[in-house]
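Annex B. Sample input.
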Amino acid sequence: MAMLGSTVLRFDRLPSTNEFAREMAASGADEGIAVTAREQTAGRGRLGRTWSSPAGDGLYLSLILRPQLKPDASAVITLAAAVAVAETLKTDFQIEVDIKWPNDVLASGRKICGILIETAIEGEQLQYAVMGIGVNLAQREFPKEIRDSATSILIESGKRVAADEVLGPLLGRIESWYRLALGSPDAVIARWSELSTYAYDCAVSVETPGGVIEGLTRGLADTGALVIEEAGGRRREITSGEVRLRKAVRSQ
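Annex B, continued. Sample output.
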């Protein structure tokens, strides 16, 4: 079993590290190969959004995974990635972070890291997954459309760090939490819940493909879905959507 990141392919510029890694995975590349770039010209985020990826200002990383999981159990991989990033920023860079379901890592209420997991499914079997992670490192300001919603390690800590300073400890934590996700997903869910002020008793609205759902968060289901209790007491398990905070009623 190869360690994640034991092979790192480094590029000066790519359209998208996730797209490059997906092409490799579809061609049979082994689990654990990591792809990084100093700059992405067409970086992607969740829900079809772009990810601002200026040269030298971020860690742009994608990992090829081949988890032995059913497709409906794969959400825990996303949670594991968020935990690994959050722990790295807290422990190695002394940045106080939060996690917004399922995978936005926040600092001072603004996004410092985005995670995009893309999968290929054949029948009832997950063929591969690509874990894409973008960490804002050295930006002092952002494009107008995300100026009020994004931050960076430099802004939060006053320190300029190189991508490799984050990559090393992050790969070690991804390895640990990914392996736990495969064998003990409840441990990943528990740690995610400890790190997120959104997990319990938080008033949110969630934009889902079926419409907006409002209520209080009641933790995560064993699949990694977000549990929302609506005003009438009905509980809903959210598997896809955009969470917006209405009012926090629990401090971390």
